Amino acid sequence: MSSITIIFLPPHPLQFDVNVTATLCPKVITVTMTVFQKFHDDRFLVEMVQDVLKILSQNPFCLLPLQDRIIPTLVSILNHDQGGDQQTLAPDIALDVLQTLVKYSQAPLSDAMIESAFPSAVHCILRTEDHSVMQAGGECLRSFLAIAPEQICRYKNGEGLNYVLQVTTMLLNPMNTESTASFIGRLVITIITKVGNLLGDSVDLLLKAVLSKMQLVKSLNVIMSLVTIFAHLILLQLDAVMNFLSTVPGPTGETAMSFVLANWLSRQHLFYGQYERKVTTLALCKLFEHGVTTKDDRLNTVMIKEQVPATIPSGAAGNTGRRTRSASAKTPMVWIDTPVLVKIFKLLLHELASLREAKDALNKNTDSGDEANSSSDEEAADEVSGDGGKMSFLTLLTHMDDGDEDEEEDEDDRQLMAELMNDPIFQCDTMEYLTKFIESFSQHENFRAFLEKIDETEKNILQTFNIPSM
């Protein structure tokens, strides 16, 4: 184990010089394969293996020798080969390793990757009932499509794309557990972004499958993943999405537009993730602008049900004009219908306030010393989170996208942003964009009408950003 320790703790010395690493490549690969096969059930060692694979995959002198050694092993696992020590290796781990190899390779992918590893991964996913394999498989295929969409589409004259769509449809099957769709949004968006022009009517079928899945899921992360699909498409293909959502029926007779917006807007304040928060916020801006400027009835007639405190008229029985904390806690709640544009406007104001508070708290902590930093983290968390607890603050800091280059930032989020956000609409600071957006709307003739619909807290947010609220 001493030789393993020298190589794997940490792996970063392999990055110092690609030529030196190339000379060590055969030995490094041998040790890596040995560790992978013998200690595959040790998550700590497998993580180290993944770190080495990332480095070797990015080294042009090591990539092909690495793939020559490891791809046959992975294919054997994915094909359920029962020979040798590999029979105990889990296919979900094999799919994770394969995803790493693909993600950190440069296009075009090798013939072994396309002709052997890719179909083996697909068949493994399609025949499994293991949800961890489904989830790992969906992410693996997303990497294939993100890195080499042309090669995947050319595989067996279009059969490769059909494979990806079969897997996606299986992951969206309402009968499967929610966990299979945890990252389905990323896969669907990658499919539409990379090969949407080849899908034809399959786009509508794919989005209908998304709607069917959304009807039954409860988990926030799955709802967020599904909503993000429509948010991303709103930013890039607004007319097409509006036509689709307004013509497809929802589960209870309303349009899919009402169904999606009801699920989206009731949870927007809970969404997390750098990519997800940015895309959904920018999409709400675009929807709001479209509704205000075009008065599109497909959108403007949508009503969102929400709970608000019941208003007790002044002088009514039981209204003494002064309320204790216990009495306030017992304030009855009533359901009301809120116009969708009013709801979006309120959400944008609260999003802006959250971004401002998180940024101010981050700046405050950055300026503090190490010892003071620890205590100010807790104080700022209490200030920002309110009744939501400290996690609200921490979530905001973790997922801020305005130039935060923290090494702890989720690597998958960064890569997804790089893959999908080449369009100029994504190249903006969210807080700056949102501020200018609301400032611009404050000059619109309909702004006053919206002021009458917001509460004092939301008017104070406008005042904080020097936007007239009277």
UniProtKB/TrEMBL annotation:
Taxonomic superkingdom: Eukaryota
GO biological process, alphabetically ordered: protein import into nucleus
Residue span(s) of domain Importin-7/11-like TPR repeats: 65-301
Transmembrane segments: none
Protein name listed in UniProt: Importin-7/11-like TPR repeats domain-containing protein
UniProt biased composition (Acidic residues): 376-385
Annotated region described as Disordered, given as residue ranges: 363-389
Pfam family, one: TPR_IPO11
InterPro entries xref list: ARM-like, ARM-type_fold, TPR_IPO7/11-like
Gene3D superfamilies reported for this sequence: Leucine-rich Repeat Variant
GO cellular component: cytosol; nuclear envelope
